[in-house]
Amino acid sequence: MNEDFYIGYLPKMPKNTARVIKIFVVAAFVAAIGLAVFAWIGQKPFAKSVFEFGTIKDFEGTIQADGVPFLLVEKSDKNNGLPTFERFPLVAEGKHGFDAKRFDGQKVKLKGTRIYRDDLQMIEVVSDSVEIISANPIEEKAKNLGKFKLKGEIVDSKCYLGVMNPGQSKPHRDCAVACLRGGIPPLFIVKDSMGNVSELWLLSETGEAVNKEILDFVAEPIEISGGVSRKGDHLFFKINPTQIKRILE
Fold first, then answer.
1. Cα(5)–Cα(37) distance, rounded to whole angstroms?
2. Number of neighbours of residue 152 by Cβ within 10 angstroms
3. DSSP string spanning 192-244?
4. pLDDT tens-digit series, residues 80-120
5. 114 with 161: CB under 8 angstroms?
6. Model's pTM, two decimal places?
7. Which of 9, 74, 102, 234 has the fewest other C-beta atoms within 10 Å?
8. What letter would DSSP give residue 159?
9. E-strand spans in 15-99?
10. Strand 120-125 vs strand 82-91: parallel, antiparallel, or unpaired?
């Protein structure tokens, strides 16, 4: 009788069969670990982005409503005796932009949750928390940096800065479109040949929001020409949405 013949209900399998199965199990286990390590090494690290969900803080500053709504918070240091400001873009809760027009040029107190990615910060404003203190229009001129032709990707700023991770590229397209349709300000993400990333607030040539006009180009590699300007640490890219060009991969 062949000793290697094995019936499943017997308490012990033949030595040769057991040896083959042990080798197969060990090899499969090692291969599984190897694949897991390979996948981990090949995985791009997530960006250092944070949404402080559940942590509501008090903020005070002046609201500017042009194109992208900002809260300007005065810094303690001054430039040539003039006040300097930290700029926080504002969004509402959920997939909605913040309606800042009725607060434009007003110094306010508000409650909100911070969203940030590296040095770029945003505030998600708690509903009905804005309290007007006084009128305080701030004249702040943008520094014109010139005309550029840039290649990059349009994202919704709220998810990109920390609410979702990763908050960009094609897997995030449907969510980004919904956020932009709801009024979340769009960002244009540009990466140079050295891998350095620049984030530019996307506006029309007249400085208005362009959310509806750019929905068909979200999360795709595109090329745009337009004027770049700077206010504080923030870059703005004024474009004509009809001149957006897709880049064939």
1. 38
2. 21
3. -TT--EEEEEEEETTS---TGGGGGGBTS-EEEEEEEEEETTEEEEEE-GGG-
4. 667 788 999 999 999 999 999 999 999 999 999 999 988 89
5. no
6. 0.78
7. 9
8. I
9. 49-51, 57-64, 70-79, 82-91
10. parallel
